[in-house]
Specification:
Pfam families: E1_DerP2_DerF2. Monomer. Catalyzes the intermembrane transfer of phosphatidylglycerol and phosphatidylinositol. This is Phosphatidylglycerol/phosphatidylinositol transfer protein. A hairpin with an 8-residue loop joins β1 and β2. It is built from one helix and eight strands; from the N terminus they run αββββββββ. The chain starts with a helix and ends with a strand. The protein is globular. Strands 3, 4, 5, 7 and 8 form a five-stranded antiparallel beta sheet that branches. It is 13% helix and 36% strand. By secondary structure, the protein is mainly beta. It has one domain: Sandwich (Immunoglobulin-like), CATH 2.60.40.
Length: 148
């Protein structure tokens, strides 16, 4: 009987100590990395995590091996289970930065994108990249991907 009383007392003390420790929720930051296709862009997004059917602002920067000219565009792609989502967007890069940007020179830009509705809370991918505007001549000069 004394052993049960001691065990219950110890459990209550441990429970009160655990409740006294402040709980911190660690926000997981979305980290973009290599897509394996081209030089990696530095990308961050706000809000983080993104919210479906709302605008997200992407900060895109990097140092590329090719000049950025008005022949290129920025794209943001949303993938669910490997299939492209319904809100893949292309943007004229030279409306956000002064073109041309010489190879080896750092650039930085911000781009808003409407996040598609119906993205699951997890299990989707985002791809950000710079390629040619000419659809017949795909040339990816920088990219970054993430899985959320």
């Amino acid at each position: 009987m004394n052993q049960n009383f001691v065990l219950i007392l110890v459990l209550l003390i441990m429970l009160s100590i655990v409740n006294a420790i402040p709980h911190q929720l660690h926000k997981r930051k979305t980290k973009f990395g290599s897509c394996g296709l081209s030089p990696v862009l530095d990308v961050s997004v706000s809000p983080d995590p993104i919210v479906a059917n709302k605008n997200a602002t992407y900060t895109i920067s990097g140092i590329l091996k090719k000049d950025i000219t008005d022949a290129y565009q920025v794209f943001i792609l949303y993938y669910v289970d490997g299939a492209e989502g319904g809100n893949n967007q292309n943007f004229d890069i030279c409306t956000k930065i002064k073109c041309p940007v010489k190879a080896g020179t750092k650039f930085e830009m911000k781009q808003k994108s409407l996040v598609p509705p119906g993205l699951p809370p997890n299990g989707y991918d985002i791809g950000v990249g710079i390629d040619t505007k000419d659809n017949s001549k795909f040339e990816l000069i920088g990219s970054a991907c993430t899985h959320v």
